[in-house]
Amino acid sequence: MATMTSPRQVLVTIDGSINLANVTRAIRMLRGVTAIVPAKTNTRKPRLYDPETGEYLNDKTMKIIEDVRSGKEHTYDIGSMEEFKAWCEAL
Length: 91
Description:
Blueprint: H1 20-28, E1 49-50, E2 55-56, H2 59-70, H3 81-90
Antiparallel strand pairs: 1-2
């Protein structure tokens, strides 16, 4: 007669290019496997907090910030308020 033991857990990390269904099927074939539950990954994007308003920046603003950081969005280097005023008038 087999003795009952408390279940043990093993966390398996796989490459994102691997088909999860195939890995799950292979693990189920192992003796003693009672359950397979995919882990939830943290997919939340970073958000910036505005201390003046007490709110987080919206998704549109965050996308523009990320585009500037990655070089997708064109930026301007304006040294003074006079240069900014001249730039605005030239538009």
